[in-house]
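Input.
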Amino acid sequence: RDFGFPLTLLLSYQVARQPKAQAVIAPWQDRYGAEIGAHLHHWNTPPFGHGSLPEPLASRELPPSLMAAKLETLVTTIGRHFASAPRSFRMGRFDWWPEILALLPVAGLNCDSSMVPLAHYLGRVDQFRTPTEPFGLMVGQPPQPLAEIPLTMVPVVPGLARLSHRLAKKMAPSRGERLLASFRSWGAAGIHPAWLPLASMILATRLHRRRGGQVLNMFLHSSELEPGATPYFPTETAVQRLTDKIRAFLRWLVETGPVTGATLAQ
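Output.
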């Protein structure tokens, strides 16, 4: 807000249904042009048909029909309490599958931001080589268009991600998994303040600009702004350092511009 950038606020069911949260969030939509999108936490969004499956609950363990019902609950709840129905989406824990993406246009969602380039999650879709720039998908049957806006993560050295991915596929499965899972800590830079230092955020932006990138997509969990809500930010001082980092990055971004803010749907 201080830098004139509109936000996309992706709401879970637990947040969207709380009157106190509605009172806080609605003015951001009315006064500051914030977009309200959907963020599916499948483990605590009704209907509940997953019995005694333990946490962390993988989305692929649930049938598509149940996931569709949960998504409908979320979208309906947001539409009931805010000025407009959501158009953009991010899957909780980035735990997406093609079957989940196929549900989005049916629910009125035409923009997804669930993919993390250069990230590797064991037992999930291989998204390591996801493009950094937004791109179009055709999902479902019959195929319908969906815009994908990935998080901004870039390789520090051109070609390094391609080489690492190729090597991982030639290794024993366990070693290949470890190589890809560790890449983000030594071979990548990104702009996500809870994950990475300010130097990495600036480096990622410079590299992305130099390589012709047009879009930066930064994310933050709201819980990371509450002292003690996550183990990474246990105190007020830790949260203050986080917000100082965000302000420093946005200040640098504006000063080195030109840059224009946009919501995910825009």
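Residues 173 and 179 are 10 Å apart (CA to CA).
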